[in-house]
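pasting for the record
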Amino acid sequence: MPKHPPTAPVLLALAAALAAPVLPAAAQGTAPPPAGPSERLFLSFAEEASIAERQWWEGQFEFSDGDVIEATLVRGIVAIQPWTNVELGGRVGFGDTETAGGLPDGSGGTDFDLWGKYRLSRDQKGADFAVGGMVTVPTGDDTAGLGFDSFGVSVFGSANYPLDKVALGGHIGIRFNEDGQFLGLAQIDGQTSAMIGGSAVTPIAKGLNLVGEFDYESERFDGADDDLRLLGGVNWSVFRRGLVRAAVAVGLTDGAPDSQFIVGYAAQF
C-alpha cells in the first residue's frame, strides 16, 4: 500500500467530470478502499490530478483500428515523484501500421511525451487539484502514421473528487501544435486544440477497480477531425506493488480510432 494519503479524481467546473481517480482513504462505513497505483487512468494518465507515489513503471500493448490506419504498439510509461507533490513522467513506444487506400505504412518509433505536474492542494473533502504541462517531441515515424513530425506543447489543470462509492476526476487544457506531416502527405498546418476529459473509478471487488473515461480534443491540424473517445477498463492489484490494467475504448468522431484495446502491467517502487 502507498505511504502517502490516497486521493480521488474529480472536476466540477465544466459540467463533465474530468481526469484522475485516486480514491480517499477508507473511512467508516461504505467509503471506497484506500487508493493506490491502481487508480491511474488510461487516456488521461499524464493530465489527471493523481501523481506517482514514488516511481511508476508500466509496459503497455495497444491495438487500434480505424477507417484509414490500423496500429499495433508497445509502449513504456515512467512517472516519478522527485519532490513532494511533483510528478515528472514520460512515455514512448514502438509500433507497426497497416493502411488503406495505398497510403504508406510500416514500423518505427512513436512520438515521445514528457510531462510535469504539481498537485496544488487538497481541500477538506479530500479533493485534489493539479496543474501541469506536456511536451510532445516528434520522434515518431510520420510516414508510417506513428507521429505527426510536429512539436506539441500543452498546459492543463485537473481535479479529483471523492464521493461515497465512486471517485470522479476531470481535466481541461489546450495544446499548441506546430505544422507537421502524416502518412507522406504534404505539410499539415498545426492548430491550437482544446482538451477536456472526465473519469469515474469505483471499486467492484477487493483490489479490483472499474474505470470509465471520456476524452476529447478538438482538431490538432487544419482539416483534421475532433477526437472523442469513451473508455471502460479495470485496474487489478494482483501483487502488493504490481497491477494488471486493461481497457477498451471506442471512437465517436472521425478523428479517433474506431476501436482501441489496451493491456499493461504496472509496478510501483
